[in-house]
Design goal:
The chain is mainly alpha-helical. The protein is 77% helix and 0% strand. 44% of the residues are buried.
């Protein structure tokens, strides 16, 4: 049996495409209106959670992040900040692997682990984006620096983590199983 079967690859492609298209169409509008990075993190966290829950394989979230990054660069070639989310995908992948895929389906504990992985990964994305791709003057005037900007990303990770965990819990309560 291959490491990633056709069902896993289909899920990765579906969630990456959804992330790429929503990031291309909706996220820039939200950013222009609010200058808050929360929506991008909500999308990232919830879709990474669904990918990991469906595949339960190390590397699936990373692959999903890489495909979403490729789509992002095709649709928005100048949006280099998305590389922060690529790194967040790797962090999320490793964090959920360490937490244990079987633990992610447990009531209470699983949701807490998914939200924690979301917070950690989006915080790191915020640090990378704020440090490498944002104008320091803009960050200082608007947010008070990179750390606060990263905390805003983490807030998006909280919301996206709760959303993703709720979707997983709802699907499991209705008997939807990935295998």
């Amino acid at each position: 049996m291959p490491y990633l079967g056709s069902r896993e690859i289909s899920a990765i492609a579906l969630f990456a495409a959804l992330w790429g298209v929503l990031n291309w169409m909706v996220a820039p509008i939200f950013w222009r209106l609010t200058h808050l990075p929360i929506l991008c993190d909500m999308l990232a966290s919830s879709l990474l959670i669904l990918t990991v829950w469906w595949t339960r394989r190390l590397g699936a979230a990373t692959l999903m992040g890489l495909v979403a990054t490729l789509l992002n660069f095709i649709l928005r070639p100048g949006a280099l900040h998305f590389l922060g989310f690529t790194a967040a995908s790797v962090v999320f992948d490793v964090a959920t692997y360490i937490a244990g895929y079987d633990n992610l389906s447990r009531r209470g504990l699983g949701s807490a682990l998914l939200v924690a992985a979301s917070i950690i990964s989006t915080f790191i994305a915020g640090l990378i984006i704020g440090s490498l791709f944002m104008n320091p003057i803009f960050l200082s005037k608007r947010y008070g620096g990179v750390l606060f900007f990263a905390l805003l990303h983490a807030a998006g990770g909280v919301i996206g983590g709760l959303l993703g965990a709720a979707i997983v819990a709802g699907a499991e309560a209705r008997g939807v199983t990935p295998k």
